[in-house]
Predict the structure.
Amino acid sequence: MNRLLKYALLLAALPTGMNAQYRSQVWSPDNGDGTYTNPVINADYSDPDVCVGASGDDYYLTASSFQCIPGLPILHSKDLVNWEIINYALRRLEPREVFDAPAHGMGVWAPSIRYHEGEYFIYWGDPDYGVMMTKTKDPAGVWEEPVCVIPGKGLIDTTPLWDDDGRCYLVNAYANSRSKFASVLAVRELSADGTRAIGNPVIVFDGNGNENRTCEGPKFYKRDGWYWIMCPAGGVPTGFQLAMRSRSPYGPYEHKIVLAQGKSSVNGPHQGGWVHTKYGEDWFLHFQDKEAYGRVVHLQPVDWSSGWPVMGRKGEPVLTFKKPQSASDVIVNPVESDEFNSPSLGLQWQWHANYSETFGMPTAFGTMRIYTHQSEEVDETFWNIPNMLLQKTPADKFTATAKLRLTAKAEGQMGGLIMMGLDYSALVVKRVGQEFQLLQLTCHQADKGKKHSSTLIATLKPTAEDKIDYKPAKHEDIYLQLQVDDSRLQFAYSRDGKKFTPCGETFKMREGKWIGAKFGFVAADASTKNDRGWVEADWIRVTP
């Protein structure tokens, strides 16, 4: 379809006045009556942190991105309920020899975002290389190249605090997998510009041997002369939120549990960021671990009347509550569907490793092209494919439908849709001889080196063939669909985009390494000698 015509039809299909803001068909937390329903972001933005922008009317959120690139997503909101993706702070991970391939679970752990003297700072711990920092004057603009503030192994979950006298302190936790100790929090002094350590670490809290095990993810604040550290403890799926206070940044700190599941349905509510708004209200954004769906973001009111930040309703999570006071009534959600009409990649998409042009790129024709990754192992596993173009699941129940063409320059080239995690399943078109096969490829325990199984769905005739002798290709035009409900995935396909045929076995989704399951496009070739084939995605639409 003509690119301009396709774009015009898309705009015409949107509700009046919504051309500038994306509204999800599958999850929106704003009830439209002055209340909201949790989660406010029903997607895997794990370890969220938030800060108030320079104007006081803007809020900025970032989250862990691990090995996925671009990394450090930047989300913006006017009311803490309606969020949109506006940018990424990290374009690549170093060292390249590690992160140019999928380094599952490595990279960016539990970042913090702060506004200080006209600049926005993000600190994070790379568990293998140290404490990193990037900054900018405009969260929607270009972020500076990261600097290593503290080199070392095992340093994670870092947050700075600029004190009233201009001195800067940093709190962090430790990754047992690297340092061989954990469940402690340490504070040290940084230079006033936050770029290097000038003091030695001091352990200020110890959760070893008690109910506060796995204390991590600390956030550092100052309020009414008290130094506050807010952190989770008790484990990711079952834990709770602690608040601790001291008159000195180095402690000793007294502590209390300020948010726990109690009788609610929200398991392990913890790890996030506290916000004090210009309207005098206090709120806390945290995650809930939903297994295959990842760690979704909830919003809780905070009551300081007791001198402690009691969150939710008397320390238990709320599911529905009155929205924060705000000057905005705009309803907007993180983008999901994509018509691929822009010359830049949509902000919902991430690659599984540092980007290379050989992965693919947008075209001038209103499509997204993903070239086949060439590796002898792809006939057995997709675990190490770096150019999977994926996005987070947006709701517990949704359907994603894609119109695409596989262009195969050689036999064995394949591409299609995938739901990727520690287990994965893909519906792909593969060239076999002069025809194509529609296959479901499913792998259990991909992270353990297991091979995927292959189930033949259908044999297809090419829908087009090149008429020239020079490196001709065969093409297959098809509509592929994945339907998700209660962590279960069902594939379907169509020849005309109207009648879809369910196919293959139902697949039980599973999370990835520290991330939720992600869906999107895969393109692969088991030969390293062929000219690359490609998947040309015309659009993908997320619907109920």
